[in-house]
Amino acid sequence: TAGLITAWCDKPIFLESLPPVLISVMCVIKFTNFIYNGEK
Where in the sequence is the domain holding 31, given as residue range(s)? Predict the structure, then answer.
């Protein structure tokens, strides 16, 4: 995410680095959801 912050001014690089970050965020959300549902 540090590269994403430094690329904030350069829009093409920012948009190119956005999908991997979104995939990582989705993985964390799914893992958290898995743990939450496992405790039920």
Answer: 2-38
